[in-house]
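[agent] plan:
  1. take the single chain provided in the ticket
  2. run structure prediction with default settings
  3. attach structure tokens to the ticket
  4. add a short note for the reviewer (M.T.)
[agent] executing step 1
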Amino acid sequence: MVKYILILILLFRNVCNSDEELEISADQFTYDKDNTRIYATGDVKIIDSQFKLNAEKVFLNNSTNVLSARDNVTIFNSDGSILKAQKIVADQDLKNAIIEDNFLYIPTAPFNNKENFLRLAAKKVERRGEYWEKLESGVFTACEVCFNPKTNSYDPPLVQLRAKKIIHDKKSLDVKYYDTFVDFRGKSIFYLPYFSHASPLVKRKAGFISPTFLQNHYFGLSTELPYYIPLNDYHDITVRPRFSQKKNPSFLIEHRKNFFKGEIISEISGTIEKKKKKDTIKENKKRGHFKSKGNFDLSKYTSLNFQIHRTTDRNYLNTYKYGYKDSLESYLKLKSNRNYNYYSIESLVFQDLRKDINQKGVPKVLPRFRVDLNSQKIMNSLNFETRIEAMNLNRAEGDETKKFFINQNILFPTIFEDGTYINLGVHLNAGIYHIEKYENPKNGKFQFSDFESSFFPQLTLELTKPYIKRTKNYRTIIKPQVLFLNSTLNAFNRDIPDQSNVNNFELDYYDLFDRNRLSGNDRFDNITRFDYGISILKQSMSTNVSSKIGVAQSYQFENHKYLPKNSGINDKFSNILANLEIFPSKSIQIKSFFTINKDNFAIKNAYTNLLFNVKDTFIGLNNIRAPAVISSDGDNLIESKNQFNFSFEQRFSEFWSFTTSSTFDKKNKIKFHDINAKIKYEDECVGLSFNWKRQYTHNPEDPTSNSFLFLFSLKEIMENDI
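[agent] step 2 finished; step 3 output follows
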């Protein structure tokens, strides 16, 4: 039979009162006298801007705007959803409809890179515009429905909800279930006379989040019951009350708000503790913390950032598990980038929580100005860089400094035809300082108030010549590099307080070729030196995987007098520095940079990362090994470290996995910081996990703690980040 195609212009009387064009094709058309009613049969297809409908029989009444379709009805909507039914009676935009024997497939996020759908079926569906939908004898599942060739039928989904009646309220954005059964593999395991959850149309809705449970010496058994409150699409709050056996309740409130060009994220917590003091009770010890962080783009080039982070006492954040850090930073920063230039003004205040730190000696920076002016980088031409800093630093106890410092760099880079790169630099440095309450180590005098100045030039010459070799399978690049620095003794001016604390300096591979290897600009390298090194990179042409090895050393023409004895550059020849990035195969990755003692060639410090990944097994091992930092006077400034972090993940099947990790120190014996373990099951519709964590905080209030967390997730009904 020849198929006829008809283009009809139908007047829709909808809210927009606009004309809509329907494209209809069928094997056969029948019209009434006035062409107001059309009856199409045989492979009917209707194409609209919002949907595509397939059916065996379709009736269109243009005068009443009624569309009726039956027999193998399939509707493909513009949002990706698919509706299958035996019969539909609806208006021509499908906003009001009665649908019989309905099957609805709603696309959702892919799982394991596979297409995924929510499935909803009902004996009868009644839809009323944008207000509500009612389903009779409805079934909902987010699980995949698989065909069983042995039974020649579809197996029931892993988890599904069956209800006598389901109401989807589009105004309150609720889905309500009446007389509901929860089925597991086709068998009912739970009955609920009433049940509701948020509509799939809403991304966020007020309600409880899964609780967490914690057990330790300080709290006993405790639980946290979070409640989420969305205020609008860009603004929400989470309230996290905590209840425990041994302590009063505590509360944490998290606040998030997005603006058109910025955001603010804040949290505040608090509790009132009763502390026993001998035979008496000390009431109302108030403890808490506040943190607020904001980022705003004021213009295309300018941004404003701020953070306020404070707590009532040293141990509170650690004890209550509210994101402990050794030092809390509060700041206000206004930054701008224009062309090649950078400008900033900032103020910083710190709260140090370490037990051996006197808070009165912690500095405050109020304020600090920075200006970086740069010419365009051009080869075979003079390039200019100007660095300006003005800063006011004060303390409740200890020295205070006001300074203005300027650094002018004049560079002349050149690349020759054979790839040789030469960069000649002249560097002029000058500063003016107002110093108060400073114990001058140079003359041994206490300077209550004094003005100091400094001026010193430096000269650098950098040379690099890469050699490249290509074969069928590999590309090899060998790059020797040298740097000559001519400096002056005035660069390390001890009449000026060292606010950057270079006494903690230790030579690092990545700063070997820097003009100033010390931090900040209060101390510069004052020894003329010669740096030299070589790096080798080998890259596979087929897999693009590359391995790299670098070795470097420095020669100082004189000895450093005031840096730590084991800084790595206190002698004329520095320690040997090496960097390894090796990929023996796609499954193994080794990264390490380490220092070798020049006298006995023993490894002094090392930062190593090992990754092993084969099929469903992942192993990671990180190690930080560093010796103690000893001052020029022989004092122990920083203790030695040998810290490990171990992680292991094993995927047993498509859905089951196990992960564990631990951080510990290894010196004379193992000292654990934490141990974690998690078992997780997750498929396209159901997820559950059990997590155990033991944390050794070395906090006198709570030296160790065990936390147990069980999370359960049902897709689109009760979702959690498992």
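[agent] step 4 note for reviewer: The first helix runs from residue 316 to 319.
[agent] ticket updated
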